Amino acid sequence: MHGDPRLQGRSEDAFARLNLLGEAPLFRETLRLIVRIARVDATVLIQGETGTGKELAARALHYLSPRRDYPFVPVNCGALPDNLLESELFGHERGAFTDAKQARRGLVAEAQGGALFLDEVETMTPRAQGVLLRFLQDHKYRPVGARAQADGDLRIIASTNVDLEELVRRNQFRRDLMFRLSTLSITMPPLRQRGGDAVLLAEHFLDRYAVGYDRARKRLHPDTVAWLLAHDWPGNVRELENLMLREFLLGDGDTIRFRADGADARAVGDEDVVQPFKVAKARAVARFERSYLDNLLEKTGGNVSLAARISRKDRSALNKLAKKHGLSGEQFRPRSG
User: Fold this and answer.
1) How far apart, in whole angstroms, are the C-alpha atoms of residue 86 and residue 72?
2) Partners of residue 285 on adjacent β-strands
3) 3-state secondary structure 242-255
4) Are residues 201 and 94 in the same domain?
5) N or C: which end of the chain has fewer CB within 10 A?
6) Is 178 inside any structural domain?
7) What's the rounded Cα separation, in Å, for the pair 270 and 72?
8) Same domain, residue pair 162 and 18
9) DSSP-assigned states of every residue in 270-290
10) pTM across the whole model
11) pLDDT digits (tens, 9 = 90+) for 75-101
């Protein structure tokens, strides 16, 4: 990322804490866009398939913005009931209605100074859409039962996993609200378009689980690496994270091994299963990489710098490749005595 090195360091730290990790060019460009938009205090619409990390992107937008010291308040729009809509969003005074035994702040007041994240904004009812549109026009609102208006000093970030323009064409979403929400927009790329990021993320999750559950770290078998690269990931990063957690907790041994079997990942039981071309190719590449690295690190005695020069690869890139296959220079260094 370009610009102030301090901002670059802060953004990379924020992305790492939020598991927004990846090296794919499309994903890195998305992260650069998040950094740029974070500096601009305008409404943002985050689009993307389920499980691509839309809420994580929203949190990154907030924590990299000048509003970072104020609250980030998420709300599931599908859970906002029409009969209590204004009360939930704007709060109410004591006695405003039958059950209002005391005054209560709404979500807008809770997010004052910070950001209100409207998750699954496409699930808003027509009435809720009208209420939100009115608030977005000038950020003024009136708590239920109050006489005076209040100012909402906050940023609105919305997300959707559907095409809002298609909903507008079906008269299921207000066109004027769509325009208000999408002043700035970000699209989170699906995992299937991110190349080797599935392997990088799987390694990251295994590292995190080993620390969190105080267990020995598990490594990925080359067959698993091939499967991760070949899978279409309909559930995206969330699917990958859940899969790694399940196998880390329930899998036997210190190696996680899969083969392609329909839409699911199953433990390998038959080496001679006929594979689709994409899977077979990925497996062959993974096996070649593992064999090449084994021989290279064996010949160099685990000296990664020398191995990088011989292979004509960047040292950090070679390290990442070795880590992907559960290898390190330490394993190949001559033992004294």
Assistant:
1) 20
2) none
3) HHHHHHHHHCCCCE
4) no
5) C
6) yes
7) 49
8) yes
9) -TT----HHHHHHHHHHHHHH
10) 0.75
11) 999 888 887 888 899 987 765 555 666
